[in-house]
């Protein structure tokens, strides 16, 4: 695919992902799940992602942070295959099963149990087995008592847990979350966070598989600290910082290496915008 170097990226620039944050393991890094090479995505007249070079490994828990319009949701949709690059290249781990949760999950006009079972049935599972797996998933997220209720009558927190049940039942290798707790009250937020952590660590996975790869967008920096092992800071479609979570929140290091990300974090933590965004 021809690259449009006049509007995206710098001609002759090559990706260097060698220094990207990744899990430290004795036998080398885990397998790569996503590999992006100078990816640009144009949505109409808007260049939503610019020259993104990124490599994500199996088992990572990656947070995407940045202001509204920075490209977080676009990047998630690109990873999930809902969008393709306008230029550049993305390689996805073909065997990896994916699930994506949105801020406001779509609920079918049927029972909570059927909202889980129908997806499994459409994927080829026998209906009786799909119903059994759906009941197991609802039990897992604490929704057994509302299994027969119309899913659209559930609270926001219950609907988000139902969306997690649908994902858990499909046994994905990769879980993508777009602001999953943004519209929830604090108690519902804690419930969903707890389930996401258990999901990400592989606790009680249907098949007993290892931890899933988690990529999520969030404006809640406390949530980022609790859930992530790695943080990407995006601004105007570019990934400007890529650090392990502890290093990302170390003020001197972030200020020295990634001043734009430092101003963003400082503004978020102080409840005000960085100076240039006021």
From TrEMBL:
Location of the ABC transporter domain: 34-261
SMART domains, per database record: AAA
SUPFAM superfamilies the record matches: P-loop containing nucleoside triphosphate hydrolases (SSF52540)
Protein name listed in UniProt: Glutamine transport ATP-binding protein GlnQ
Entry GO MF terms: ATP binding; ATP hydrolysis activity
Primary gene name: glnQ_2
Keywords annotated in UniProt: ATP-binding, Cell membrane, Membrane, Nucleotide-binding, Transport
The organism's taxonomic lineage, starting at the top: Bacteria, Pseudomonadati, Pseudomonadota, Betaproteobacteria, Burkholderiales
Similarity comment text for this entry: Belongs to the ABC transporter superfamily.
Top-level taxon of origin: Bacteria
